[in-house]
Amino acid sequence: MIGRKRSSTTEEPSRPSVLPSNRRVAPAEGQASAASSRNAGNEGKGSTKKPRAGRLRSWAGGFRARLSGLRAAASIVFVVASSIALAWGIKQHVVSSPRFAVKTIRIDGAVRRSPEQISEAAGLRVGMNVFSVDLEAARNRLLLDPWVATAQVERQLPATLTITLTEREAAAVVAVDADLYLCTPEGELFKKLEADDPIGLIVITGLTSSLVANDRKLAVSRVRSALELMAQYASRGPVQQHPIQEIGIADDGSLRMVVGRSAITLEMGRSPYPRKVLQAARVIQEVQKKQKGDPAIVFLDNEAHPERVVVRMR
After folding, report:
1. Which residues pair with 81 in a beta bridge?
2. pLDDT at residue 8 greater than cutoff 80
3. Section 261-283 average pLDDT
4. Pairing between strand 255-259 and 179-183?
5. How is residue 129 annotated by DSSP?
6. Same domain, 226 and 124
């Protein structure tokens, strides 16, 4: 019997595939996942460490900047404080030094008040320190006196104070209801009449307290008109023979004047007054010649026919 010859096949062991050296072998799926996890963890750690270090450096830089700013501010404060202390020390020395004690108080422009009264009113005295004087306060105290129109106080080193005044001038006495006031040449009422005030001033009547309170501008304007008439009569009228006794202001602003010892009333009406004053002088003179006496009233207030003059005898 011919036995069958078993054929045996010997298989060669499989060789691993050889790849080019410049290509990477793709890892197995499990290995790839593990490697990715490790890489991700490493990246996470690195990203955490780097920002922390940056913040630390930023904080340190900011701290140094703030510290530098504080040092600069402290230097400025020190310099300012030193300057203030130095200035205070100098001021204390100046205001207490006998070298700057007031020796002379010079006063210019005072007529109605004595130098002693002016110095006392201003709060000034010899011996006080020239730098301790509040010049504006002294000036304001002087202006409380109704006679003082303007005032100026100055220091002249080392030991002199100078006061310069402009006093008001009283032009007439103005009756406001039952009260009497002094007025300036501009018509301003500036003080009540007192016992030591000037005497012999012409009296202007006819103003009311309500007019002065409610329309002072109109009141001043009417007083100014009376002063204008007074000036015209003084330069053109018979002021020597018949001096002005009183000027009255009517409700409508027209003026009436009383002149002479016999109290002649001149109804002057409204301005202009130069021509009316000349007419009044001529009429009084003619009446005295013809009638051997003074008229009682002379009417010069005909505005429609200013050339017409009416005379009323006593």
Report:
1. none
2. no
3. 96
4. unpaired
5. B
6. no
Q: Is the pLDDT of residue 83 over 90?
A: no
Average pLDDT over the chain reads: 84
Residue 204's nearest CA partner among 158, 132, 144, 257 is: 257
Q: CA 97, CA 130: separation in Å to the nearest integer?
A: 10
Q: What is the CATH number of the domain that holds 242?
A: 3.40.50.11690
pTM of this prediction?
A: 0.68
pLDDT tens track for 112-145: 999 999 999 999 999 999 999 999 999 999 999 9
CA–CA separation, 142 vs 137, rounded Å?
A: 9
Q: Is the pLDDT of residue 246 over 50?
A: yes
Residue 110 CB partners (closer than 8 Å, separation 6+): 118, 163, 165, 167
Spell out the residues 6+ positions from residue 84 whose beta carbon is closer than 8 angstroms to its own.
Answer: none
- Tokens coding 44: 């996470």
Contact 231, 199 (CB under 8 A): no
CATH number, residue 104: 3.10.20.310
Q: Is residue 247 part of a domain?
A: yes
Angle between helices 274-291 and 216-236 (to 10 degrees): 50
Note whether residue 72 is domain-resident: no
Please name the residues in contact with 90: beta carbons below 8 A apart, sequence gap of 6 or more: none
202 with 305, same domain: the answer is yes
For residue 272, being part of any structural domain is answered with yes
